[in-house]
Give the backbone structure.
Amino acid sequence: SALPELIFDTNVEVRKKFAADCVALEVIDEPTMMSALIRTQYWAPPPAAQRDFVFLVGKREHDDGSYEVWGCSVHHDDVPEKGGMVVRGTTLWGWHCKPVGDDTQATYVNCLDTRGWTPTFVMSWLKTLAANEISAARAVAMGKEAKLTRTGLSESEQKELESSSSNK
């Protein structure tokens, strides 16, 4: 299956085929054959600022053809924060992809510390973003065109945002 290679590809143009919210992806360093320092930036629904992450990523392939990729956000002095981006959150994530016949079983886990109060619309956006990326990556891996949409705010989420902004 092409799904693991697609998910693990660090070319931003490849990523944009299935990740509508990914606006930048850059390999900063590859300290070993199994690890990389990667910067990725994601669009966020207005009025939230874009998300800017630097991840230390590791990858391992097993004899049975399965893959594991994991990463955690890190601070790196050579990668300054860009203006207009939100302070980097702390996240730990991982993928396990296992061949099942001609298909791939993919499992994704994520633990996120947003460093404080986070509006429910941002959490909803993050969950929707992950589901959309996984579905679109599967379509692309199967040779289909993925329908890409950026996740926006619902009417109730917009009202919640306006209400929380006026209480400050």
